[in-house]
């Protein structure tokens, strides 16, 4: 008859218990990590719509005579409420602009749509009297431009600076002394 020494069975059972607990803890950590990732993905807010409001009180129409022909340019202004800089917001903005909308404005030599990040609500009179106090280069986000009904391009701004497309124009000071000949 085979006999098992006393204590061996207990040690083996305790070792198995420790191994089982370690395995359960590892599985639990993995499950918690997966839940956290799924929660983070689920909580990432992807905008499904944009609130774009016209700022008609500061829209501008300029007519000028050039070689006997009158050219009219129009600048339409809009504010975007709760703007977030992400690809989905840009997609929604593009859908709003609908390049054909610029084509409909073909009666203007140049038609520009400017989009600003919304600032504090102001009344129409205050906005009309002091537009640059509320909507200026600092909160300008995008400009879409058309020329004679053809879409010409989009410019993106951030903190008052043009960031897209990058400007390739460099302005240098003109030397004050004449160059030797």
Question: How would you describe the overall organization of this protein?
Answer:
- With 181 residues, the chain is α+β, with helices and mostly antiparallel strands.
- It folds into two domains: 8-44; 51-164, Diaminopimelate Epimerase, Chain A, domain 1.
- Helices cover 35% and strands 29% of the residues.
- The protein contains five helices and seven strands.
- It has helices at residues 8-43, 87-97, 99-104, 124-129, 131-134, and strands at residues 51-54, 60-66, 69-81, 110-117, 140-147, 150-158, 161-164.
- Strands 1, 2, 3, 4, 5, 6 and 7 form a seven-stranded mixed β-sheet that branches.
- A hairpin with a 2-residue loop joins strand 6 (150-158) and strand 7.
- The radius of gyration is 32 Å and the shape is elongated.
- It starts with 7 loop residues before the first helix and ends in a 17-residue tail after the last strand.
- The mean pLDDT is 78.
- CA radius of gyration is 32 Å
Q: How confident is the prediction overall: mean pLDDT? A: 78
Count of β-strands: 7
Named CATH topology of the largest domain: Diaminopimelate Epimerase, Chain A, domain 1
Extract low-pLDDT stretches.
none
CATH architecture of the largest domain: Roll
Helical coverage, percent range:
25-40%
Number of discrete helical segments: 5
Order of helices and strands: HEEEHHEHHEEE
- Structural category is alpha+beta
Shape: elongated
How far do the termini sit from each other? 118 Å
Number of domains: 2
- What percent strand? 25-35%
Quickly name the level 1 CATH class of the largest domain.
Alpha Beta
Main sheet specs = 7 strands, mixed
């Amino acid at each position: 008859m085979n006999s098992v020494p006393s204590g061996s069975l207990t040690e083996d059972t305790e070792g198995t218990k420790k191994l089982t607990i370690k395995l359960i803890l590892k599985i639990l950590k993995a499950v918690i990590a997966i839940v956290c990732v799924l929660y983070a993905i689920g909580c990432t807010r992807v905008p499904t719509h944009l609130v774009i409001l016209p700022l008609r009180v500061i829209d501008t129409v300029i007519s000028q005579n050039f070689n006997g022909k009158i050219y009219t340019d129009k600048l339409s202004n809009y504010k975007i409420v709760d703007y977030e800089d992400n690809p989905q917001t840009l997609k929604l903005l593009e859908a709003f602009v609908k390049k054909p909308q610029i084509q409909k404005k073909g009666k203007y030599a140049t038609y520009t749509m400017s989009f600003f990040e919304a600032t504090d609500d102001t009344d129409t009179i205050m906005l009309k009297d002091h537009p640059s106090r509320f909507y200026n280069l600092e909160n300008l986000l995008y400009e879409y431009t058309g020329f004679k009904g053809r879409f010409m391009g989009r410019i993106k701004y951030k903190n008052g600076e043009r960031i897209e497309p990058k400007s390739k124009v460099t302005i240098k000071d003109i030397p004050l002394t004449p160059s030797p000949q």
